[in-house]
Amino acid sequence: MNKIKQNLNPNWVTGFVDAEGCFTVVLSQTNDSKVGWQVKPSFKIKLHIRDINLLKEIRFFFNEAGTIWTDYKSAHYAVRSKDEMMKIIIPHFEKYPLITKKHSDFLLFKNILKIMNKNEHLGKDGLINIINLRASLNKGLSTKLKTFFSDNVKFIKRSEVIIPINIDYNWFAGFFSGEGCFFIEISKTRAPRLINTVGLRVFIGQHIRDKLLINSLSNILGCGSTKYSTKNAIIFSVNNFKNIYNKIIPLFNQYKIEGEKLLDFKDFCEAAELINKKAHLTQKGLEQIKIIKSRMNKGRY
Predict the structure, then answer these.
(1) d(Cα 136, Cα 151) in Å, to the nearest integer?
(2) DSSP bridge pairs for 157
(3) Spatial separation of the C-alpha atoms in residues 58 and 16, rounded to whole Å
(4) Domains of the chain listed by start with CATH number
(5) What are the start-end ranges of the H helices in the chain?
(6) Nearest C-alpha neighbor of 85 from the set 46, 45, 43
(7) How does pLDDT run along the chain (301 residues), one tens digit per residue?
(8) How far does Cα 283 stand from its chain's mean position?
(9) In 10 A of CB 73, how many CB atoms?
(10) Edge to edge, what strands does the sheet with 21-29 contain?
(11) Is the sign of the CA dihedral 262, 269, 20, 299 positive or negative?
């Protein structure tokens, strides 16, 4: 069993949750409640099973709140206890706020918990208040809930997210540990002759609703650019080698990438050193980089 490192930075945790976390509320019909519905809130993170040790680190950070389980190729961490969420999860994100649109979900989620903490969800008015909040949370209500509560739903306006001027770099490390990608590109060019070219790329994609944050990254990091990959997605990327070598790599050497992505980052750094020494211009160096590339990302497993 791997030893828990006990050293996750709280801003790193918030950044990782901005990338991979979810605040959700499930409503299900039951005969055990006077209003006929049961309200089940939960804070969740789902990762590939290879990152189960990172979930253990996160659970340790949250004072062992919640549980971890696996199914097939996925590892899940969830906190479902109302008391644990009110005492541990909510205070953390109040002190170290989320800065993606997930912050709006968190505020709606927190208001639902406040209603539950007063046991108001056991009455009709409290349940309707929760339904209205749930209608604006994540992707909204299911078709079943929309139909059942069609006469009662009043959408709650989501809070606007304000991007901080100064974002803690630990947040960046957590965010990129979740959604970032370190990539080596090898391609052929015919000018002036058929040769291999090697490039590095760091990128991160988000839903278009977080375009303000993604568009701000180039100014905050001093490099990179953004583009829309689809009508619903926006990508921030850094392709310039000098910026990667002099800005991105030093940043993540100081503010650590965690989990299995750390292995990709280390390989990425190894390739960067070869390129910096011009080794990629030799056949031997190129073969070394090809080997590094083959074991990164999906090639590692």
Answers:
(1) 16
(2) none
(3) 10
(4) 10-148 (3.10.28.10), 169-300 (3.10.28.10)
(5) 10-20, 52-61, 82-84, 90-95, 102-117, 124-135, 143-148, 169-179, 211-221, 241-243, 249-254, 261-276, 283-294
(6) 43
(7) 455 555 899 999 999 999 999 999 998 888 877 888 889 999 999 999 999 999 999 999 999 999 999 998 999 999 999 999 999 999 999 999 999 999 999 999 999 999 999 988 888 888 889 888 998 888 887 878 877 877 777 777 778 778 888 899 999 999 999 999 999 998 866 555 545 688 999 999 998 889 889 989 998 899 999 998 777 899 999 999 999 999 999 999 999 999 999 999 999 999 999 999 999 988 899 999 999 999 998 766 6
(8) 38
(9) 10
(10) 21-29, 37-48, 74-79, 67-71
(11) negative
Q: How do beta strands 195-207 and 67-71 pair?
A: unpaired
- In this structure, the chain runs to a length of 301
What does the alpha-carbon distance between residue 271 and residue 290 come to, in Å, rounded to a whole number?
Answer: 9
CA 182 to CA 262: how far, in whole Å?
A: 10
Amino acid letter, residue 205: G
What is the C-alpha to C-alpha distance for residues 89 and 80, in angstroms, rounded to an integer? 10
Distance, CA of 263 to CA of 299 (rounded, Å) = 12
H or E element, residue 277: none
Nearest one of 120, 124, 126, 128 to 152, comparing CA atoms: 128
Residues 170, 298: Cα–Cα separation, whole Å: 25
- Which two three-digit tokens encode residue 206? 């988000």
In order of 113, 193, 218, 226, the CA distances from 232 in angstroms are: 30, 39, 20, 14
∠ CA 129-131-134, nearest 5°, is: 110
How many angstroms separate the CA atoms of 236 and 211, rounded?
10
CA distances (Å), origin 280, targets 70, 198, 284: 41, 7, 8
